[in-house]
Amino acid sequence: MLAVVFVVSGFIWAERPAYAAATTASARSSERIGEDVVFLASESARALAPQSSRCAEPENLIPKAFGKDDPLPGTQKVMACLYLDQFAASSKPLTFTSSDPQNPCSVKWKNGVPLWADPAQRKIMAAHGTAKKVLKSRKQMFAEGYKVRTAEQRRSYLAGIEQIRDQMAPSCCGEDRACLGAMKQLRIAQCSAEGDRDPNKPDSCTYANGYFDLSAEEKATFRDSLVGNPLKAILPGGIVLSPYLDRNGNAVALEATIRHELGHACTSIRRQATILKGGLNAFRSSESLDAQINGACDLGDTNKVAYADILSASSGASAARVFDCVRVLSEKSSDSKSTAFFEESCEASKLEEGMAEAIALSETEPLVPKGFPDRICYGLPSTRHMASADVFACLIRNNPKFRARLSAELSCEGSAR
Amino acid sequence: MNFKIVSLLALTLCLCSRAFAAGQKSDFDIKVATRAGGDEELASIRRLNGTCSVRSGLETWKKADAKACERALALSGAASKAATVPMMPHAPQMEVAFKLGTESWKKLAPLALVKSCDRNDVCTESGGTPTKAVKELVDFISETALKK
Asked: Is residue A11 scored above 70 in pLDDT?
């Protein structure tokens, strides 16, 4: 059973809020630390599998051969290549209905159908990605085998993530110098909280494994920009990462999560870069960011334009088509006849999440096995997230380079397609 | 015969007065949820058809004292004026959503003050604590849901 036990934090205010106590009381003793807010079921499975849970585990969530054998045995590989060929041969845009080409992920799914095709499973998945759980103390974490990086490990770890950031910058920014500069300034930091001072207090660093955020000062500046004090420079923000290592010495923040968060940073920075340039697109980007920070769910025309600009600079027409596909996908999430349907979807959030995931996937190397099949095929949808497999479909349909890379890595015949 | 007419009148009066009483106190709904990639309800209070109820998480609604709804409504007045923080897709934040007839508002509040340090030991703070009004409202709803 998956041990995704979401219970609210107990550290929120100095005096413990009542709701924290309530949910803590209902928690089991087996919660793990902050689940990745980008919930990649297959990658989390290793840590989660041996533990008990109050949540029902989707039955075919964890591939049997996960992490041990070849992630894609011979027959499955042949079929995946065949489906990839169908994507290459198709000239129609994806409609996210049964008339689309078969997703290569279907070789991994039970009966070729994703788990989220079942409404009952969608109900379980609806709130995943929510960083809501009991906050453990540093002492509890240590008792469970977790460790905190030493100062030297921290420096080396953060330097490694900075390299990933720098590698992703050109594909995010193209040749936009302001954007490239801001990506370089994007802070890569490790959470440092109560646990450092008092190992007995709930540690806010257990809240999430990694997320993109603006500093308090940046948030204030951004708010000002919406009430007549225009932005003078891009606010880069930062990625806040967990200081914890699991009992095997692995970072609890998965690389997939970090890349996804870098994708969010990219969409924020790109829109701000557009704002600084002025003109109509600046207005649209500003509107789009404003809507996002207000948590709006309406997709709106401004979003459509603002996001189109994000991918267009780097990879030309194919990127624009990827965006268009992700946009259609976010709209289809509210269409009960679509394979992308998810109850109570927040379309604007889905667009943002889909873009972050598209950026993350297109920058994942090697795609096999880092992305495909496990991460991509088992990246679950929620009210605010698209299924990674759907974003993947957008990429293999609309980005020939991405498709060719996957084909080559799978050793498909005619891999240049 | 007269008895039947009187009974019918009494029943009509009774139903009318109950409907009037319910109408006097408008239905509303206040939800507290985390907002970090997915919505997960923490606690809620509502008045539906004149009955006040609360729930913790997604548990079954439980009847609450009418005064609890009055208090929640009073606290929501101040909370409605509080500033909302910018929504970051996965940052630790919570959302208070209020709905009364056609009136509705949502407030995003940080869940925690998080300090983070880069490899050069330069530290930054993000998140923070909710405003007093939002905190009072959230605490009240949570405590009421807990008591039940």
From this structure: no
- Does the structure show a pLDDT above 80 at A61? no
HSE-CB of A87 using CA atoms within 13 angstroms: 28
Q: Measured between CB atoms, does A208 come within 8 Å of chain B?
A: yes
Query: CB atoms < 10 A from the CB of A112, how many?
Result: 14
| Coil vs helix vs strand at A57 | coil
Q: Is the dihedral of CA A385, A357, A322, A108 positive or negative?
A: negative
- Chain A to chain B Cβ contacts (< 8 Å): 193
User: Which B positions 27-86 lie with beta carbon below 8 A of chain A?
Assistant: 32, 34-40, 42-43, 56-57, 83-86
Instruction: Report ipTM (2 d.p.).
Output: 0.75
Strand runs (DSSP E) across chain B, as ranges?
28-35, 39-48, 51-56, 62-63, 93-100, 103-110, 113-117, 123-127
Buried b (16+ CB within 10 A) or exposed e, B120-143: eeeebebbeebbebbbebbbbbbb
Partner residue opposite B37 with nearest CB, options A129, A155, A207: A129
* B22 contacts chain A (CB < 8 A): no
**Helix, strand, coil proportions of chain A in percent (round to 5)?**
55, 5, 40
* Residue among B40, B106, B116 minimizing CB distance to A240: B116
Beta strand A187-191 pairing with A238-241: parallel
Using the Cβ of A227 and the Cβ atoms of chain B, whether some distance falls under 8 Å is answered with: no
A154 touches B: beta carbon within 8 Å: yes
Q: Is B92 among the domain residues?
A: yes
CA gap B3, A410 in Å, rounded: 87
CB contact under 8 A, A22 and B146: yes
Other C-beta atoms closer than 10 Å to the C-beta of A159 total 12
- The residue segments making up the domain with residue B90 are 26-147
* Pair of tokens at residue A103: 């997703």
B1 falls within a domain:
no
What is the distance between the terminal CA atoms of chain A, rounded to a whole angstrom? Answer: 41
DSSP state of A204: G
Give rounded-to-5 percent helix, strand, coil for chain B. Answer: 35, 35, 30
Asked if B128 and A193 come within 8 Å (Cβ–Cβ), the reply is no
Between A204 and A59, the higher pLDDT residue: A204
Look at residue B5 and tell me if it is in a domain.
no
Q: How far apart are CA A208 and CA A191, in angstroms?
A: 10
Asked if the Cβ–Cβ distance from B40 to A37 is below 8 Å, we say no
Tell which residue, A310, A243, A315, has the closest CA to residue A272: A310
* Residue from the list B57, B91, B115 with its beta carbon closest to the beta carbon of A192: B115
Residue A189: phi, psi to the nearest 5? -135, 160
How much is the pLDDT for B89? Answer: 80
Res A22 pLDDT > 80? no
Instruction: Answer whether residue A410 shows pLDDT above 90.
Output: yes
Report the share of chain A in percent with pLDDT over 90. Answer: 46
Number of domains in chain B: 1
Asked if residues A158 and B119 have their Cβ atoms less than 8 Å apart, the reply is yes
- Interface membership of B104 toward A (CB under 8 Å): no
**Is B122 within the bounds of a domain?**
yes
The most confident of A59-73, A308-322, A352-366, by mean pLDDT: A352-366
